Amino acid sequence: MEIQKGFVDSIGNTPLIRLNHYSDLTGCEILGKAEFLNPGGSVKDRAALFIIQEAEKKGLLKPGGTVVEGTAGNTGIGLVHICNAKGYKCLIVIPDTQSKEKIDLLRTLGAEVRTVPAVPYKDPGNYVKVSARIAEEIPNAIWANQFDNVANRLAHFQTTGPEIWEQTGGKVDAWLASLGTGGTFTGTAMFLKTKDPKIKTIVAEPFGSAIYNFVKKGELSAEGNSFTEGIGNGRITENMKDAPFDDAIRISDQECLETIYTLLRKDGLFVGGSTGINVAAAVRLAKELGPGRTLVTVLCDSGARYQSRLYDKDWLATKGYSIPEI
Predict the structure, then answer these.
(1) Stated pTM of the model
(2) Nearest to residue 146, comparing CAs of 182, 176, 110?
(3) Known catalytic residues?
(4) Which residue among 76, 115, 260, 318 has its CA within the 20 to 30 Å range from the CA of 290?
(5) What is the CATH architecture assignment of 8-39+159-318?
């Protein structure tokens, strides 16, 4: 067995898991990239690593420096792990609407955490804009800027996409993923298109995201809202620019819930809400395309980060939902 040299070298090369229940149901191979098995527990470990490495290469991040970021949680968790491994400090600005599990974990890992009210991006108090201002005020600090720093999507162009291509033996009919920053979807889609332009690259979005209508109609507009965290956006980030959007599928919170509980009860996979959006979209597309296709999506993180919400009957009841009977 190969020995990995520390946390950083352990990022990536995650398994591609056949989702047996949904694959058997549709007659397609529905495969999930098991990003919850990254050492920091999510797909965002990849972007966090590339952002820090890029800053080091450019001489922007020096020994003893601080990495500042505005995040819904997972990128921050990846950043603080890597900062610990490399000897940097980490300061995270996070909306106070995010799960207690993620906020508590950031503090446990050693990040300085500042919670702010959840307000739209145009508001100066938006968590992303607050983090940018803080980074300017701290000596020897960088702003990770995950939304508009294209080192994010480069991580997926150079690692996630090639891994999927190799793991499937080049047999991919569709790639589907939800968008937060857009890095995972875009970087992976761009790579796969270089290998086979016929691969369908499909956006999976919750209600409340403007990206669905952007792909469908060319306009940034949104309807409804969602309890999902870390995905759904109201603008085109730098990581989304020139993305090969072939189509978009919108998934309701109820479908998301039914999907994550089905994955848990039928496949033993304990995953978060963004994964529910991704897999539900893949199942819908599989039914549209018909049997015999290979569809790949991403299993973003563990359900452990949402136990007090998506897996808590009392919290669900406050949103008008109940635990699905599977």
Answers:
(1) 0.95
(2) 182
(3) 44
(4) 260
(5) 3-Layer(aba) Sandwich (3.40)
Q: What is d(CA 79, CA 47) in angstroms, rounded to the nearest whole number? A: 9
- Residue carrying the six token digits 């403007």: 210
Q: Pick 43-143's CATH classification: 3.30.390.30, 3.40.50.1100, 3.40.50.300, 3.90.1170.50.
A: 3.40.50.1100
Is 129 within 8 Å of 139 (Cβ atoms)? no
3-state helix, strand, coil in the chain (%, to 5): 45, 15, 40
Round to whole Å and give the CA distance between 197 and 208: 30
Tens of pLDDT, residues 192-241: 999 999 999 999 999 999 999 999 999 999 999 999 988 999 999 999 99
In eight-state DSSP terms, residue 276 is H
**Interatomic CA distance for residues 304 and 201, integer angstroms:** 29
| Beta strand pairing call for 141-143 and 294-299 | unpaired
- 285 to 19, 23, 152: CA distances (angstroms): 15, 12, 27
Q: Judge contact between 300 and 36, C-beta under 8 A.
A: yes
Which amino acid makes up residue 82? Answer: I
